[in-house]
Write a structure and sequence with these properties.
Oligomer: single chain
CATH superfamily: Glucose-6-phosphate isomerase like protein, domain 1
Number of helices: 9
Helix content: 40-55%
Strand order of the largest sheet: 2-1-3-4-5
Number of strands: 5
Shape: globular
Distance between the termini: 20 Å
CATH architecture: 3-Layer(aba) Sandwich
Structural class: alpha/beta
Strand content: 5-15%
CATH topology: Rossmann fold
CATH class: Alpha Beta
Length: about 210
C-alpha cells in the first residue's frame, strides 16, 4: 500500500475500508496528469468548496517544489528577458484542473436560460476530452447535476471518480471508481472527504515531482 495511504489510515482508521478505492483513484488521476489531461471537479455547497480546494492543491505547489519545465523557462527568457528572472523563479508547474462550480456567469446564465441541473454537464461538453477525469463529489451520491455530469463525461470517454458517503448513490453506476466514506450524515461525510483528497493530491504531486 502507498505510504501516503498508510499514513492516512493511521490518522483516520475508519478509512481502512476505502484504501483500495483511493489507490484505484490515484492510478486514474496519475495517468491523466502524466499524459497532460485535465481533471475536472464538481460538487454543491460544501462539496463545491472541496472542489475548489482540490483544484488549489493541484494547480500550485502543495508540499513539494514544482519548477516550471526548461522549455517554458527558455521561451520566457527569449520573449521577455527583463521579466524572466521574476517569472521563472516564482512560477510553479501545475496539474491542469478546473472546478466546474466556480463559473458563476456561465452557470447562472445556463440555469436561467436552459436547465439548472445541467450546469456541470454543459461544461463537460465544452471542456471534456477523451481520458480527462471528472471527480464527482456528493455526500448523498445522488446530486442530480453531478449525476448528469457523470453521464456526459462517460459519453465523452472520460474517467469518472466518485467521492460520496456510504449509501448507494445514483452516480455510482457511471463511475470507474467510487470512494465511499463510512458515514451517512452530510457534515460527517464531508469531514472525511478532506483527508482523502489531500492524500490523493500528495500522491499525485509526489509522483510527478
Amino acid at each position: 500500500m502507498n505510504d501516503y495511504i498508510v499514513d492516512l489510515i493511521k490518522r483516520y482508521p475508519q478509512l481502512e475500508v476505502c484504501k483500495n478505492s483511493i489507490q484505484d483513484s490515484f492510478n486514474i488521476l496519475d495517468e491523466s496528469a502524466k499524459n497532460q489531461k485535465k481533471i475536472l471537479v464538481c460538487g454543491n455547497g460544501g462539496s463545491s468548496a472541496d472542489s475548489d480546494h482540490i483544484v488549489g492543491e493541484l494547480m500550485k505547489s502543495f508540499v513539494k517544489k514544482r519548477p516550471i519545465d526548461s522549455i517554458l523557462k527558455d521561451n520566457i527568457e527569449k520573449i521577455a528577458p527583463l521579466e524572466a528572472s521574476n517569472l521563472t523563479s516564482k512560477l510553479q508547474d501545475a496539474v491542469s484542473a478546473i472546478n466546474l462550480s466556480q463559473h458563476s456567469a456561465l452557470n447562472t446564465a445556463f440555469s436561467n436560460d436552459v436547465e439548472p441541473s445541467l450546469i456541470f454537464a454543459q461544461q463537460i461538453v465544452g471542456y471534456g476530452t477523451k481520458d480527462d477525469v471528472l471527480i464527482c463529489i456528493s455526500s448523498s451520491g445522488s446530486s442530480k447535476n453531478v449525476v448528469l455530469a457523470s453521464i456526459v463525461a462517460k459519453a465523452k470517454n472520460m474517467k469518472v471518480i466518485g467521492l460520496t458517503g456510504e449509501k448507494k448513490g445514483d452516480v455510482d453506476q457511471y463511475c470507474d471508481v467510487v470512494i465511499k466514506v463510512p458515514e451517512i450524515e452530510t457534515y460527517k461525510v464531508q469531514e472525511l472527504h478532506l483527508p482523502i483528497y489531500h492524500t490523493l493530491c500528495l500522491m499525485i504531486e509526489n509522483s510527478l515531482w
